[in-house]
Amino acid sequence: MEAVRKGERAISDQIIIQKIMSGNDHAFRLLVEKYRNDLFRTIYAVLRDRKEAEDAAQEVFIKIYHSLPQYEGQGFKTWMTRIAVNHAIDVKRKRDRRQEEVMESVEYDFQGHGESVETEMIEKERRVLVREKLLELPENYRNVIYDFYIAEKSYQQIAEEQKVGVKTIETKLYRARNWMKKHWKEDDFS
After folding, report:
1. 27: closest CA among 38, 13, 10, 39?
2. Most buried of the four, 40, 67, 95, 113, by CB within 10 Å?
3. Residue-by-residue pLDDT tens, the chain, 190 positions
4. 41 and 57 in contact (C-beta within 8 Å)?
5. Which domain holds residue 29?
6. Overall number of domains in the chain
7. Are residues 83 and 118 part of one domain?
8. Residues 120 and 79 occupy one common structural domain
9. Are residues 182 and 148 in the same domain?
10. What is the pLDDT of residue 2?
11. Is 102 exposed, middle or buried (0-12, 13-18, 19+ CB in 10 A)?
12. Nearest alpha-carbon partner for 79 in 47, 8, 31, 29
């Protein structure tokens, strides 16, 4: 029985794909409706950010539309999922690279000009330590701590980016600070 269902879906997907290839844009909307939840969950599992996952899902469907001529007719859902995972990984790498660039620019701003080599080395070690400590934070706290303290965004800016209320950001920061107090000692940073 299960094999029949998979076969029906494969035939149905093939028919939809043929209609898309012949210029029927409505057929592509059917494909989007059919797979949008699956692709969103796949992308969200990589990015762990709802807004980024929504944006990435739209980009993935555009990639799928443009890549349909290369589709070879085997395992359409698997093919789409592979495109989604690869795209999500690329988005995550870019996001991480942007965060590193911001961290590096913050590091540069902290560096005093004309300081002794010893002072610069101590500051560099401290920045590396802070970066490592940030990675220890649970991810849901890490982003809000990073945005507030490193990127110096306001509660309002963070709330808008995460599409939540300002009170939610206040709560996350409060909980993140409590987590840090509980898990870290001041000696960890010296």
Report:
1. 13
2. 40
3. 344 445 455 558 889 989 998 988 889 999 999 999 999 999 999 898 899 999 999 999 999 999 999 888 888 999 999 999 999 999 988 888 877 777 766 666 555 555 567 777 777 777 777 777 777 888 778 888 888 877 788 888 888 888 889 899 899 889 888 888 887 776 655 5
4. no
5. 2-92
6. 2
7. no
8. no
9. yes
10. 41
11. middle
12. 31
Spatial contact of 145 and 134, defined as CB atoms under 8 Å apart: yes
Which amino acid, residue 115? E
Buried b (16+ CB within 10 A) or exposed e, 63-93: ebeeeeeebeeeebeebbbebbbebbeebbe
Interatomic CA distance for residues 75 and 7, integer angstroms: 10
Same domain, 11 and 79: yes
- Which tokens hold the place of 67? 């890549």
- pTM over the 0.90 mark: no
